[in-house]
Amino acid sequence: MRRPTFDLDVLRTFVTGVDFNSFAKAADRLGRSTSAVSAQLKRLEEQIGTPILAKSGRGLVLTPTGETLLSHARRLLEMNDGIFQTLHESQTAGTIRLGLQEDFGEHFLSDLLRRFVHAYPKVNLEVRIARNAELLALIQSAGLDLALTWDTGPLSPYATRLGETQMHWIGARDRPLLTTLDDSPLPLIMFDAPCVLRSAATQALDAEQIPWRIALTSPSVGGIWAAVAAGLGLTLRTRIGLPSHLTVVSGLPPMPSLGYVLHSSDDDPTPAAQQLAAMIKTSLQEQAFHFTITK
Q1: Does any domain span residue 63?
Q2: Range of the domain at 218
Q3: Which end of the chain is more exposed for a tag (fewer CB within 10 A), N or C?
Q4: How many CB atoms lie within 10 A of CB 244?
């Protein structure tokens, strides 16, 4: 048996009339005559096979079936309008400037680019990989549209905290663990200050009275991973982008989680920028799930 198909135009009339609490106002809003709107509602009730509106005094109220239909109709119209908006935006040329803290940039940038370019082939995506302070300054000066950073304290005006991830002491998998049994300072591989993970590491070691020294600083996460792999010291980072030849090291002070935040330079970003933000959120959720099942 062939199932009937709802006419979205009729559903839009129905929803608009309920929203305005007047089908006469709905007719004016939609550019139709009141008789045309009445005919649409009559056809809708005939299609469903039961009344969706009932008289109440001088007005109309929804029947239980009408209430159910209203909920479904809203979702159908939202989906319909969202599809058209996405298709329209995907054909609209423009530029989105995205900033990523290096940990995020190295790990899921390629997949994020592929998915976004597939959905918005005419939108130019400019990506800047930098540290927190530079990204936040660019957001404040509108030099970036979106930026994904670590949560280092006060948020920018249009920011959303997306989640958090555990900080870990990281060392080389195939080398003996570095210890402080001989009272020699623990060698650390870190970014230059200021750095939120560097501060967290040194403060935790100081609290436990564990001596430390900065054995090497690097301007990039890749440099940190290389120095740790060479056995030059330990570092403190998250598991995001952790290479397979490195591992979490035990025996040092336990560390808390570190939040990550998505900043926007505008309180009303373009639909394409909103979609990119949604993709970033989804990627991070998938990343968090991956760490949950693999650690």
Answers
A1: yes
A2: 165-258
A3: N
A4: 6
